[in-house]
Amino acid sequence: MTDATTLPDNAIEVRGLKKTYAGSKKSAPKTALRGVDLIIPRGSVFGLLGPNGAGKSTLINILAGVVKKSEGAVTIWGRDIDKEPRDAAAALGVVPQEIVADVFFTPRESLEVQAGFYGVPKNERRSDELLAALGLSDKANAYVRALSGGMKRRLMVAKALVHNPPILILDEPTAGVDVELRRQLWAYVRQINAEGVTIVLTTHYLEEAQELCDTIAIVNRGQVVACEPTPQLLRRLDSRNVVVTPETPQATPPVLDGFQVTPRPGGAFAVTYKKGQSSVEQVINAVRAAGVTIADITTEDPDLEDVFLALTYGDASQVDPTKD
Fold it and tell me: Would you list the DSSP string of 150-217?
């Protein structure tokens, strides 16, 4: 696509992106994106997260050229989608959330047809290489309709890569996929990322995003509410948990003034405190003052799920925007 000496610093740049869907006689216009700004660095694994209806699919469809934006500018691999739409689209490989299968073709035929759509010369096609990389060699000549759901998803990844795009967008790629197939898919994603392919991932499996992504953007109600390197994002939640295992299991956890207490399995409970306002020592003193004898304690830092919930569903005041 681009000479090695002129590779863009950023795989995708989005500025002031807005999208409003026209209304009808029975419904008002719907605004899906409200001025999104987003920079996706070249070579990164970039997570795009958000609740259902947040605008993620609209954003991906605009990048893929399926939906027209209302306002703003989008550059993909240095190509403006308004001025060079074909070149911008060719820089992307998109794996949609829905399984789209050519049921009357074999996997090898599906890849050959897809490569033909992109004008890949026959001597440069990688059908067998991609089938082997995604564990589909033994199904190369079976009809696609006979493949399992997980195999069809892997075939969709292979189809997205037939033209060797520098950017791969994965929209919920492991939905409905079993643990072993998920592991194989992520191993391959890590491999092609190490070879220089930029990955854009949407997923509802937040532990996957936390493990895989260098940077994560969280979208809510059509706006980017956070976009930071993953470790930095995790530090934004100004709270910790102290998990208390009492000598005598508690059927009902104690009420502690000034702290949120939630039950845990086995009669234990977790006490949540804000790091800038309390300490582990104060939590322990409060537990003892409630008449609980402590057998063991552990502490937990917030994970991505905690941050995600605070930014999209819960009390966003928990998130300290000054943390770095």
Answer: HHHHHHHHHHHTTT--SEEEEESTTTT--HHHHHHHHHHHHHHHHTT-EEEEE-S-HHHHHHH-SEEE
Smallest CA-to-CA distance from 73 within 35, 32, 21, 22 is with 35
What count of other Cβ atoms lies within 10 Å of the Cβ of residue 29?
A: 10
Pair of tokens at residue 52:
């259902």
Query: Which helix or strand (DSSP H or E) is residue 249 part of?
Result: none
For 205-228, what is the mean pLDDT? 93
Distances (CA, A) of 94 to 55, 81, 82: 17, 16, 19
Per-residue confidence band for 314, with pLDDT thresholds at 50, 70 and 90: low
Residues 94 and 210 grouped into a single domain: yes
**Average pLDDT of span 281-301:** 94
Task: Identify whether residues 129 and 248 lie together within a single domain.
Answer: no
How far apart CA 234 and CA 323 sit, in angstroms, is: 10
| Contact (CB, 8 A) for 167 and 197 | yes
Q: How many folded domains does the chain comprise?
A: 2
CA distance 277 to 21: 45
pLDDT recorded at residue 179: 83
Q: Which residue has better confidence, 97 or 199? A: 199
Task: Give residue 2's pLDDT.
Answer: 45
H and E: helices and strands count for the chain? 10, 14
Out of 229, 264, 287, a domain closes at 229
pLDDT of 171 strictly over 60 = yes
Helix (H, G, I), strand (E, B) or coil at 261: strand
Q: Give the domain extent around 269.
A: 238-301
Separation between Cα atoms, residue 270 and residue 283, nearest integer Å: 10
User: SS3 for 102?
Assistant: coil
